[in-house]
Amino acid sequence: MDKTNNNLILIAEDSTTQAENLKYILEKNGYKVEHGINGQETLKLVKRDRPLLIVADILMPVMNGYELCRRIKADENLRDVPVILLTSLTEAEDVLKGLECGADSYVMKPFNEQHLMSRIQSILASKASLGDEKVKQESIDVLFAGKKYFVNSTRFQILNMLLSTYEGAVQKTQKLTETQAALSTLRTSLEKKVEEKTEYLQLEIKERQQVETAIKASEKKYRNLVENALVGVFSSTLEGRLYFVNEAFCTILQYDSVEKLTSRTFQSLCNTPKNYKAFLETLRKNHQVRDFEIELISNPGQTKWVIVNALLKGEILLGMILDITERKKTQEKEKEYQEELRVAKEKAEESDRSKTAFLSNMSHEIRTPMNVITGFSSLLSDPYISTENSTEFVNRISVSCYSLLNLIENILDIAKLEAGKLNIYEKKCSLNQLLTNIYSTFSKEKRINGKDQISFRLQTAIQEKDFTILADPFRIHQILSNLLDNAFKFTEKGSIEFGYTIQDNTLQFFVKDTGIGLSGDQKEFVFESFRKAEDIKTKLYGGAGLGLAICKKLIMLIGGKIWVESELGKGSTFYFTIPLKVAEKPVEEPEKKMPAYESVSLKDKNILIAEDNLLNYKLIEAILAKTKAKIFWARDGVEAVEFFNAGKDFDLVLMDIRMPNMDGFQATQEIRRFTKELPVIAVTAYSMGDEKEMAMQAGFDDYLTKPVNSETLLNIVNKYIYKER
After folding, report:
1. DSSP string, 583-640
2. CA 196, 202, 203: angle at the middle one, nearest 5?
3. Smallest Cα–Cα separation from 423: which of 693, 698, 704, 706?
4. Partners of 402 in the beta sheet?
5. What is the DSSP-derived secondary structure letter of residue 218?
6. Which of 273, 383, 582, 644 could serve as 674's disulfide partner, Cβ 3.0–4.6 Å?
7. How far apart are alpha carbons 558 and 45 in whole angstroms?
8. How far is CA 588 from CA 486, 636, 715, in A?
9. Between these two residues, 290 and 243, which has the higher pLDDT value?
10. How many CA atoms lie within 13 A of 279 on its CB side?
11. Partners of 634 in the β-ladder
């Protein structure tokens, strides 16, 4: 056990406010202070660092102040540490309980700094005067209120407890005396105010009487003024029977004569009995109403909002009304506008939060593949790297590149969809062949990603291989790929199934999995932009939260709808529909035998590459090097056309779209003036469906997107150079 810390006082107090107040007082008086939120925590602090003194609240959770004191006094090494109990309890039993547990003193709540420090200093001074002298414990049985208490304390402790209790009582009495004096002062002040108010009311009553006298004297004088007033003036009995109304009153309620209106009661003119009841209650209570808004019924049966100011004189009600119907309509419009603003503000704030989360997630999704690309690229420069490792590193770099490319394409897609700049291009599409290709792609990825334990199936409603529809195959492929990506991402075992059914004139596609599923809340926002449905703390799933938002916007653009049925922990089924447009089967042309791209030799062939970026040109040149073709480089569209102006013959042109001086579209149109048969292939970083359609309409024969895949490039070169063979 450490020696006593001669400057440390421990506080046991579950109230943070009380603890901070105590700490402030003690530290101001030069003590070091530590705080435990209950008796159990404070006991640990005591055993770790023996304090000079302990101030403990009685009522605390886990372990109260009595039990804390009892355990300290029961410990041979701690029993001489003084314990002051701090409490608002004032019963005699509380003092006996304090003696029973061995407490040294009481301080009553609320306390002042002077009294607290006096008790602490008294206890510490007494302890110092006793030194290490052993004081004999007194064991006393006390019977109080029919209950027996066993007190085992020193005479000094008993005396201190009684003195502290006495001081507390004196302090309470002093406080009560102060309160009584304050109440006496308050009573005197109130009596004075009542007198002043009485004088004021008497004066007001006198003035009112004078006003009433003046009104009677001038009633005849102002009758004509009332008749011609712009506000509606009326008088009636307290029950509502109308004695008098002026022309303005009739005009407001659209009555053509005073007689018709005075045959009605004021109550019958009110739109609801509740309004009239509230009007009467206010009138009876105050004998007048000011600016009371009420809804009246006009002669055509329409409602009119008016403000009523009225005075009750005996049983006669005198008042006037002001038409505020237009003001009310304006206020209602203002409320609607404010509500729209509030909703718009909430949507904007939610959008801002979502986009902030999206940017944070996007940083992760971009940096992850970039880390792989830069990391393994640096490892490839190691001259001692093995061929096996080199191949593996290249594969990982390739996978990360395509992951990054897919992320960029999703961002571009969502941007174009939200701007309304993305178009749907329908053409004949072999649906079953399209789904078979998707099935083959994901079956291969399933093996590569080590998910052979998942059963993967394709289900089609039409079994004919060449079942043809009119649709945008690129967008159908994109939607199904996004849904299947999610299915494989969130499914570790079980099965994944996709396909379509036909319902009336609608194609209904589905993607079903046995993955983690969605909760009810997640299903509400799963199709929103920048939102991710994952809520799993044990595993972090990749993705930018754009896939399902893109799917929904594309399907709406096509003219269909998308929804999800899911149960948390059991899996999900996503459905979407598109209009069914059956097309005639395309005429099958005999397939021409092409040499495999690995064996292609283009030794006598001339190929022009129009590309402004040196690195992109070097990449295409390196891919074509194995074909032994003769390569020519044009740095922009102008240089490409100059080759043809010079009479140069080419077997194929690879044309970038975006170049300085003259872009690929214009350059191709110029080349077509020299030759209509020469194959011109667009090679561009713009992979959207719109750009592809524009390229084909501008005279290109085919379309390649960057990054250029060597196998795809060689196949397309092979296809067009050997087209006529």
Report:
1. -PPPPPPPPPP---GGG---TT-EEEEE-S-HHHHHHHHHHHGGGTPEEEEESSHHHH
2. 90
3. 693
4. none
5. T
6. 644
7. 70
8. 36, 39, 21
9. 290
10. 28
11. 610
**Sheet with strand 506-513: strands edge to edge:** 454-459, 494-503, 506-513, 571-579, 562-567
Tell me if 677 sits within 8 A of 650, measured CB to CB: no
- Torsions phi, psi for 654 (to 5 deg): -105, 110
pTM over cut 0.90 = no
pLDDT tier at 538 (50, 70, 90 boundaries)?
very low
pLDDT band at 500 (very low <50, low <70, confident <90, very high): very high
Residue 132: the pLDDT is 47
Q: Which two tokens stand for residue 116?
A: 């607290």
* Of the candidates 674, 502, 640, the residue with the CA atom closest to the CA atom of residue 580: 502
Q: Which amino acid is at 654?
A: L
- Please give the structure tokens belonging to residue 2: 């450490």
Give the model's pLDDT for residue 419.
Answer: 78
- Name 390's Cβ contacts closer than 8 Å, sequence gap at least 6: 380
Give me the residues paired with residue 578 across strands.
507
Q: What is the edge-to-edge ordering of all strands in the sheet holding 53-57?
A: 32-36, 8-12, 53-57, 83-87, 105-108
Count other Cβ atoms within 10 Å, centred on residue 699.
14
Is pLDDT of 146 > 70?
no
Burial 78-98 (b: 16+ CB within 10 A, else e): bebbbbbbbbeeeeeebbbbb
Please answer whether residues 672 and 697 qualify as being in contact, where contact means their C-beta atoms are separated by less than 8 angstroms: no
What is the rounded distance in angstroms from the CA atom of residue 691 to the CA atom of residue 703?
Answer: 9
Answer whether 434's CB lies under 8 Å from 477's CB: yes
3-class DSSP state for residue 224? helix
How far is residue 180 CA from its own chain's centroid?
55
User: What is the arithmetic mean of pLDDT over 464-491?
Assistant: 91
The predicted model gives 500-505 an average pLDDT of: 91
Average model confidence (pLDDT) across the chain:
82
Higher-confidence position of 4 and 553? 553
